[in-house]
Amino acid sequence: MNWLRRWNARSLASQFFIAGGLISIAAMLVVGFFVSHLIEETVIHNSGAATALYVDSVIAPLLPNMQTESLLDEASAQALDETLGQGALGKRLVSFKLWRSDGTILYANEKELVGKTFAVSDKLQRAFAGSLVARYEIASDPESDKERALGKPLMEIYNPVLQPWSGQAVAVLEFYETAEGLGDSLAHARLRSWGAVAALTATFFLVLSVLVFRGSRTIEAQRKDLKERVTELSTLLAENRGLQRRLQRASQRAAALNETYLRSIGADLHDGPAQHIAYASLRLDSDVLINASTQPDAREKELAWIRSSLAEAMTEIRNICSGLVLPQIEKSSITEIVTRVVEAHQHKTESHVETVIDEDGPELPPAVKICIYRFVQEALNNAYRHGGGVQQTVRAVSHKGHVRVEVSDRGDGFDPTEVRPTSLGLVGLRERIDSLGGSFDIKTGEGGTTVTMIFEPMEVGE
Asked: Do the beta carbons of residue 120 and residue 140 sit within 8 Å?
């Protein structure tokens, strides 16, 4: 079945050209043979009919009443001999015979054939049935030794002799003529018929080929475009599935991280402000404040301790809230967001941060803006806590939907493999960025640490 696969692999135009060409050639041969044969038959019949009419007009008056079915008398035979042996008719005719219906030759210019009986041929039967029979061929009948000896095609004509009042064929005239030029006429007619059939077939095939090739090119272009679209859709589907799996994993990890954040906040509140408030609450029930005999200085000192504990609790609560509560950044640009985070960081840590911002892109979704805010905030905090805040730099670029934010320092760096999965900083950043379809990268070493987040236009648009 290899040939079938190779055939199906061909284009429609190629298949049509091969199959259509073979069928057209076969049709041309069939039609050509039929048309050329029909033309040859027509030319031979018309030529025979003209000769028969001429011979009949000359010979018929010399024939006696053929109803007697006997051999011709000497007078009629002599008249025929003289007529057939001279003049234009004598030059044209090679032989002449007069047949009876039983196959007997009543007259012939070859005297040895007169009176002989031969088997009735199909041509003779058709002539006695009233049809003119004409053939252009080398003689092959048993009684045609003389004609066959010439070795060239002759015009053989069987012309029925009809009774004038009944139209019945009472005898048949058979004669051969040289028919000079008929062979050339037949060859010319054959050539013209084959040329016409070939030209018509070629024109028909070429017109169809043009239409099929145009259609094939259109189909091939559509097939190629469809294949490219299917490939593109398959790629997008695979990417979509990958993103969906990423999103599911990110959502699961985000839920776990949120729970960890809540526990961390609860621990911070319990270990910090709650302890100070509990301490202040216990001091409020002390004997120093309850006993009326307590000296004012001691009472004031105790109240100072209580106020100090409450103040420390409020300070710690504010610090915790400052890290949780976002400013109004939904309508802010990237420049405003980064500047706000950097200024807050510099004010809190009393360190310097170099800022480079290039923004000419479209408005970003609020989720991306929040992600940028948290990314810069957490990255600067890590740079200050773990890198000492040495040469901190923030670079932010937003161009036609492509967002790239980079936070770097020149500290001692760290080993990324030692970061615990439960660590809230880097892991939280990575999960937040993954959940939005962005990419997160961190490079660290002796020369410092660089943390990068990237959002492509498609990802941002989503």
From this structure: no
How far, in Å, CA of 179 to CA of 196, rounded?
26
Nearest Cα to 401, choosing from 331, 336, 459, 333?
459
φ/ψ of 359, rounded to 5, equals -130, 115
pLDDT digits (tens, 9 = 90+) for 226-280: 999 999 999 999 988 888 887 777 777 767 667 666 766 766 676 567 766 866 7
| Greatest Cα-to-Cα distance within the chain, rounded to the nearest angstrom | 192
Q: Cα 109 from chain centroid?
A: 80
Return the number of other C-beta atoms located less than 10 Å from residue 367's C-beta.
Answer: 12
Q: Where are the alpha helices (DSSP H) in 104-181?
A: 122-128, 145-149
- Adjacency order of strands within the sheet including 353-359: 353-359, 392-399, 402-409, 448-455, 439-445
CB count, 10 Å around CB of 284? Answer: 12
Say what the pTM is.
Answer: 0.41
What is the distance between the alpha carbons of residues 335 and 313, in angstroms, rounded to a whole number? 34
Q: How distant is the alpha carbon of residue 164 from its chain centre?
A: 77
Q: Find the Cα–Cα–Cα–Cα dihedral 142, 147, 150, 155, rounded to 10°.
A: -120
pLDDT in tens, 400-456: 888 999 999 988 777 666 655 545 567 777 877 887 888 989 888 878 899 999 998
The region that residue 356 occupies, defined by phi over 0 for left and psi between -120 and 50 for alpha, beta otherwise, is beta
* pLDDT tens digit sequence for 280-326: 776 677 766 677 677 777 777 777 877 787 887 787 777 667 656 56
Beta-carbon count within 10 A of 57 CB: 9
Q: Is 433 exposed, middle or buried (0-12, 13-18, 19+ CB in 10 A)?
A: buried
Q: What is the DSSP string of 306-320?
A: HHHHHHHHHHHHHHH
- Give the residue among 414, 418, 406, 362 at the shortest CA–CA distance from 386: 414
Pairing relationship of beta strands 353-359 and 169-177 according to DSSP bridges: unpaired
Residue 121 CB neighbour total at 10 angstroms: 18
